[in-house]
């Protein structure tokens, strides 16, 4: 590893601003729902995640961190196909099937489609999943989630976006303007530019773009040797918070030495242990995929749900998902009435006054429900009063008894400190 190590331990302000400009995309628009903030944020933090399983340390020319970031930004892979494996361990509480039951009930009552990408891809927030991805320029992408004896696919072809769930034989269809316009182009990783910015990031390229938005003066960036991923020689880019308080330990990206495309992305928590999520290509080819890869015709008898126009449907308010997208995501929530951001960099905490009296716990919630809510969090007190902290391995949220919410990729102590400062 030594020949490729770099003492370029930080990026200066100009580099940080340049990286931010390169990767700042349209911010996601959806609905912000306070009661599910912890679960929603944790799902969205797939934008900041995943462990490198090296298979050899290839001998490559030395590069600096700045050069490697520029190489990622200049990457222009238009065609690819491959398999991505994602393992996610956010440490979410076991709801005993409650979440799936609620989802199933909603589908049966006609409130949604099991083929809708906005709900289906949140399954990546837990467990191990295998994805097959393919792209042929900005107008054709496909992502398939492989399940036991079933498959879920999202296909973008021109103005059409199709979602298909083979298990339920349901189809979701939406239309939008061509992806090759001025608002984003393609992300080269299996989805159109617009769709990639508005869905859960699912490939190393998506994840890296989100992580690089967090690079600022509070960040250490280094090149730590080399690796071989999916048979490709790669550099290892390591991104770390400089200060304590963040739940993020380090983010490691395997960058293809030839194309500059991220092949694997790792986030390990400050608390230690296994990676929060391990996502990377196990197989990749940069040859042109067969044209038939992007063809889709709804199967006979399938239930079809029309989603309308993609751009119109997503022109609403901010989402809880934005909270998980680095510092850029927190900044993107400034438009919410009453929302503020306390602190800076990796220790940023978003705070929002719900206008209510907080989440009822204990006897106030009544019976078993109160005990269940109490079991999900830890009671804390401070200058702000009292409240409950709900934790994952990456994102924590403090709901005060007077209805204020504090959320960030920071420790419990940092949340309490932010709440005290917010008084």
What does this structure look like?
With 423 residues, the protein is an alpha+beta fold. It has two domains: 2-327, Clam (outer membrane lipoprotein receptor (LolB), chain A), CATH 2.50.20; 337-421, 2-Layer Sandwich (TATA-Binding Protein). It has helices at residues 13-23, 37-44, 65-74, 98-108, 117-120, 193-198, 204-212, 310-313, 326-331, 362-365, 367-376, 412-421, and strands at residues 79-88, 127-136, 140-147, 150-157, 160-165, 170-175, 219-229, 232-241, 248-256, 262-269, 277-285, 303-309, 340-342, 349-353, 377-382, 385-391, 396-400, 404-408. The strands form two sheets. The protein has a twelve-stranded mixed β-sheet. The protein starts with 12 loop residues before the first helix and ends with a helix.
Task: Give the SSE map.
Layout: H1 13-23, H2 37-44, H3 65-74, E1 79-88, H4 98-108, H5 117-120, E2 127-136, E3 140-147, E4 150-157, E5 160-165, E6 170-175, H6 193-198, H7 204-212, E7 219-229, E8 232-241, E9 248-256, E10 262-269, E11 277-285, E12 303-309, H8 310-313, H9 326-331, E13 340-342, E14 349-353, H10 362-365, H11 367-376, E15 377-382, E16 385-391, E17 396-400, E18 404-408, H12 412-421
Parallel strand pairs: 6-12
Antiparallel strand pairs: 1-2, 1-11, 2-3, 3-4, 4-5, 5-6, 7-8, 8-9, 9-10, 10-11, 13-14, 14-18, 15-16, 16-17, 17-18
Helix pairs in contact: 1-3
Q: Say how many strands there are.
A: 18
Beta-strand fraction estimate: 25-35%
| Helical coverage, percent range | 10-25%
From N to C, what is the helix and strand string? HHHEHHEEEEEHHEEEEEEHHEEHHEEEEH
CATH topology heading of the largest domain: outer membrane lipoprotein receptor (LolB), chain A
CATH class of the largest domain: Mainly Beta
Instruction: Report the total helices.
Output: 12
Indicate the structural class.
alpha+beta
Compute the average pLDDT: 74
The biggest sheet amounts to:
12 strands, mixed
The residue ranges in which pLDDT falls below 50 over 5 or more consecutive positions are: 1-17, 19-54, 95-110, 178-198, 310-335, 362-367
